[in-house]
Design a protein that fits this description.
The protein is of the alpha+beta class. The protein is 25% helix and 23% strand. Strands 3-6-8-7-12 form a 5-stranded antiparallel beta sheet, covered by helices on one side.
Length: 272
């Protein structure tokens, strides 16, 4: 049973998921390739083990959704436990799903804008499905591309987590944005986007409704921020038309990564 434990020295929370130690390490058996047509004994390929567990009603032409076999978050009652007043632990309540590419050749860096749109719409709809649950504090769609990113299965897939725990980086962004709004009565991300559109030295690509920028103070090499030009408080407010422009900009960035950096491993996630 996964749990969330608090570090008594820093107050930070960490997810402890023992079952994830049993998940397959496919990359230990074969080198990663972004040009795959079939993977032998792959649990995520059509007809494989995971295919039979797919969730009904939320598949698309290019992707299907399954429960994570080795979840970090599970649908169990929240339970709190204290040991000597020093060690706090709660049940890792939430949901952990996998959005699987139907075609194993559809690696993220090779997806067309149309297929990226398909993926974004599914991720948005997963957010909508959990937005009104009071026990859920945060949702985090993400994609680990390549072995060095932390991916353990070569078959292309994104993940979706809904949790009572707000990730530390997302919590800091919320706090900083709230502080900025209280002093300026404006959205921090909107102001950053507007400024960078007017001073485009860090602009990578833009269209009518979306843009991508290199980070002003990157936490790691080649960090990129992709954002919509119109203010939205959550991805559940984003229209399919806006999603299409977002997918187009994202496709441009991924092609840059693929062609200029020779298909590097990377992490992509949506903060909403």
């Amino acid at each position: 049973m996964p749990k969330i434990r608090q570090n008594p020295l820093t107050d930070e929370w960490s997810v402890i998921a023992p079952k994830r130690a049993s998940r397959p390490e496919e990359y230990a058996m074969r080198p990663f390739s972004s040009h795959m047509s079939h993977l032998d004994n792959c649990p995520l390929c059509i007809g494989g083990e995971a295919w039979n567990d797919r969730l009904s009603g939320i598949a698309s032409q290019h992707f299907f959704v399954i429960p994570n076999k080795y979840p970090a978050f599970v649908e169990t009652p929240r339970m709190e436990q204290r040991e000597s007043g020093l060690f706090n632990e709660i049940g890792s309540f939430g949901e952990h799903q996998v959005i699987v590419a139907s075609d194993p050749a559809d690696a993220l860096n090779l997806l067309s804008s149309r297929k990226l749109l398909d993926l974004l719409i599914i991720l948005r709809d997963r957010v909508v499905a959990y937005q009104d649950q009071q026990s859920i504090s945060a949702v985090l769609p993400f994609y680990n591309h390549g072995q060095e990113s932390g991916a353990s299965i070569a078959h292309p897939h994104a993940q979706f987590v809904a949790s009572l725990l707000i990730p530390p980086l997302l919590e800091r962004e919320i706090n900083v944005s709230s502080h900025y709004f209280s002093h300026h009565n404006r959205c921090l991300l909107c102001d950053l986007t507007t400024y960078q559109m007017k001073h485009p030295n860090r602009l990578i690509n833009a269209n009518n409704q979306a843009a991508a920028f290199t980070a002003f103070a990157p936490r790691f090499p080649f960090e990129v921020l992709i954002t919509l030009l119109k203010h939205h408080s959550s991805i559940n407010q984003v229209t399919n038309d806006e999603m299409s422009d977002l997918a187009s900009v994202m496709h441009h960035v991924l092609q840059k990564f693929n062609n200029k950096l020779n298909n590097p491993s990377f992490n992509w996630y949506i903060h909403t």
